[in-house]
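Hi support team,

I'm opening this ticket because the web form for multi-chain structure prediction keeps timing out on my end. I have pasted the exact lines I submitted so you can reproduce it. The total is 698 residues across two entries, so I didn't expect it to be a heavy job. Is there a limit I'm missing, or should I split the entries? Thanks in advance, R.K.
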Amino acid sequence: MTRFVERHPAWALIVIIAVAVVLWLIFAVWPPGLEDAIGRKRVFLNAVFNGITLGGLYFLVASGFTLIFGLMRNVNLAHGSLYLFGGYVGYAISASTGSWILAFIVAFILTALVGILLQVLVFRRMEGQDLRQTMVTIGLSIVFADLMLWACGGDFYQIQTPSWLIGPVELPLITALKSSGEPVYLRYPLVRLVIFLASVIIGIAMWLALNRTRIGMIIRAGVDDRDILAATGVRIQIVFVLVFALGAGLAGIAGVVGGTFQSLSPGEDIRFLLASLVVVIVGGMGSIPGAALGALIIGLAEQLGSVYIPTYAIVVTFLIMVLVLALRPQGLLARR
Amino acid sequence: MSVTHDTRIQIRSPASSAQRQAARGWPDLNNPAAWIVAVILLIMPLIANGFFLIEIFATTLMLGTIALSLMFLAGYGGMVSLMQLTIAGFAAYMVAVFGTSDNANISLGWPWWLAVPTALTLATIFGTFGGALAVRTEGIYTIMITLAIGAAFYYFTNQNWAIFNGHTGINNVATPHFWGVNWRSDIPFYYVVLAIAALCYFGVDYISRAPFGLALQGVRDNPRRMAALGFNVNAHRVAAYAVASFIAGLAGVLQVWNYRQISPGSVSVGACIDILIIAIVGGITRPIGPYIGALVFVLLRTFALDFLVKIGLDGNRFRLLIGLGFLAIVFWSSDGVIGLWQRWRRSQRPQSDRPNGGRGHG
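Hello R.K., no limit was hit. The queue was backed up. Here is the completed structure from your submission:
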């Protein structure tokens, strides 16, 4: 952080000012002139919170994607299918047992199993052939998409939110002042906040596991140079299987999350594949903090864009990607 | 040992010089199979009825031409671009926007000879711009970025009502009438498609042997060495994108004339991936590959339903069939159907080739 400030003082200043403006927009009571110019503060705050929670969901999908890519150089274009598969599994479990938590566990285990099967049966056979692996994942995503369409049909599914999470909570953020001077606080759905907190916890846990444990050290070594790692006697195939299982399982969890606060239908797999692609392109391939930053940026851009410039929301996302590619092709937080 | 070594060299050298000659001239000219295919394609309207002519052969040629632009980038430039269909779709949209259609508030009503060049120019610029972004990265990153561009365009057309008319798209696009011919009626349209496909095919074939194409293949094989030799690597790549975009744009114009409408469904991500499947299934080392792949794809798409129902399965599982076929091709052959065919020929060759080579030596 200090090094960044030393090396790019101008950029650091711009970032600090931007952060200060955003904090002011969130915490201050807006003067009437501002409300006239860009609308009510409640709308803005809702968009910001939606963007942050959507970013949490994107992070769950993209972190598995970027983990798998970072270690195995395998662009898993079937990642969106794993997401949708996890969502359908979660729906089936929560509809039959009524337990939301159980849906997460089963979805994680089943998608992780699919990931293990993929790694053992398919990707191990074509190690080092990037392009061929990518082609195979495209083929697999087509097959999976059609199998899921066959099994679940084209309907929309939504996973039932558990009763203890239904309803809004009041946040200590003032959206407006009543004419009597009494403040109006922001009310926001509890379930989205819980899910966002959970994705933050998962992200921190992943960061700790990668940076503070032995297995994490092996994975980081594998990201840097897997040939030397294999030469030092680490059973790299087992590490590959583990990482693939974890990445796929995260996609499965994300599927349940997405099924709870959005909906599941054919086509969602491609939407989330695209989202994770853009997130990791912006954040930097193979970097977990990059995925977090990218997910936050893309989630906010999508939500704020859809509120303030509705017809061009997707273009904002795309422009961010173009800008990052033009200024820093390796991604914002990538090392190389 | 030295004697056998020498003879081997002697046997090989005439063969390789012959190959080099073939590489310099038009290799198709002395291949009887190519002439037979050309004649069959030319007299196709006598053989096939309207359905086969347009739904099978013209569609094959159009999809094949889009896939050809991908083959040009992937085979000669080493850049797998998933946005070729997007560029074709962009050209199609531009024809609809500048030409005449039912959506009078969007279409400008220009005559086709003005709208089409404008559309092609814009599509080429669009593709070149996308390419300039994509060449900042390499290999699998290129796939991801071009896929992201394609998907962004799809969602954009869905959301934008001012130019792209949202998810309903633009309907009843006018097709050209001149010299007393309705160029959209089956037989003239087939010949237009055939002519443009042939133009693109021979154009790519020519470029692959022109200095630009050779430099591009050098860039594909070893960019650092080409840079050291003084070639501007990125400029060659961007130029390749420009050429490919023009080809894709031509096919896009034909497509919008064929269906007379264009909507976001035609530029969906699935359709972009279909183009990749076509090129990979056909083989991306030679320009004929995409057309073979397109024929397989179109035949499957058209008849898989009947076929699946006939053997007692659900007819809607056509995409499953396509996906499994694609997986099988990627698994068993690195170069699609062409690769399989060449491998089969090589396995036949030991009986037939040696006396032939001996004759050449004698």
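A quick check on our side: The radius of gyration of chain B is 22 Å. Let us know if the file doesn't open in your viewer.
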